[in-house]
Amino acid sequence: MLFNIFLLVAGLGALVWSADKFVYGAAAFARNLGLPPMLIGLTIVAMGSSAPEMFVAATASLEGMTDTAIGNVLGSNIANITLILGVTALLGAISVSSQTLKREIPMMLVATLIVGYFLYDGFLTRVEGISLLVLFLGLMGYLIWHGFHNKNTDALAEEAAEEIPADVPTAKAIFWLVVGMVLLPLSADWMVQGAVGIAKAYHLSDLVIGLTIIAVGTSLPELAACVAGVLKKEDDLAIGNIVGSNLFNILAVLAIPGIIAPGAVDAAASTRDFYMVLATSSALAVLILLSGRAKQLKPWHGVVLLITFIAYQAILFLS
């Protein structure tokens, strides 16, 4: 048991660290190649916080643990909204002014409904996995196209561009890019192996271990990004990290088990856990899009979100 806990903790630490270095190297290298900061911000930086989920999903799928991969995606999306935004909102009201976010949040809801339709029959097929990936690529293409053709400046794009490392030597950028690419799959494997050992010891299902320990662990980059964004008064970037990560998870990351290991899905994932993803995503949309002129997440919203997270975790462990 101690060895499994060590594997889990070491894998998690290495996963978060290597994801950060991967994004740092990739963003700096892209900037040195002359790519526009807005393009880098909307792609590499925006998707970087979901790198842990992507590599964990790939590792779990290759090892035949489809439910762990799916649980990681659903659990991460729930944790991002209830735990990460809950903690962040406690630091102070989070205001939203970005028009990009006001488009992406409805997209997140539509993507969630599509996934719900795919999971409804208790199977995730390869065709569905490929469809999710195609939808993701189309969505990214649209956002990039809109970003270049929209003459009005957007708060989210500006804040994302400011996060791109500047004046980094190309050799250094490539070094950290390679380090991240090597360590990400290794650390993901350590984390999955440790989690599996713990799950077996406590008789937890593959789905529950993905929804709980792994999901919360892979959401740590979002927590760091959100807290940093709020402290730097970059509220749109804080919310953008969550919405962008959830979109990436539900489309790109969930496509991985569908493509690599298609097959039956735990019935609870397509009912209890999907409904929780839909409920929390809808709650975020209501709070942000229908909160009047203020468009704010307030500290008391954070309290409600945290209570929701704790209640959901209790249900998972007690069921």
Report on this structure.
This protein is mostly helical and 319 residues long. 81% of the residues lie in helices and 3% in strands. The protein has 13 helices and four strands. It has helices spanning 2-32, 37-48, 51-62, 66-90, 99-119, 126-149, 155-162, 170-201, 206-218, 220-231, 235-260, 267-289, 299-318; strands at 94-95, 123-124, 263-264, 296-297. Strands 1-4 form a two-stranded antiparallel sheet. Strands 2-3 form a two-stranded antiparallel sheet. Helix 3 (51-62) packs across helix 8, helix 4 runs antiparallel to helix 11 and helix 5 runs parallel beside helix 11. The longest helix is centred in the middle third of the chain and has 32 residues, at 170-201. It is globular. The model has no long low-confidence stretch (mean pLDDT 83).
What would you say about this model in short?
With 319 residues, the protein is mainly α. It contains 13 helices and 4 strands. Residues 5-145, 173-317 form the Sodium/calcium exchanger membrane region domain.
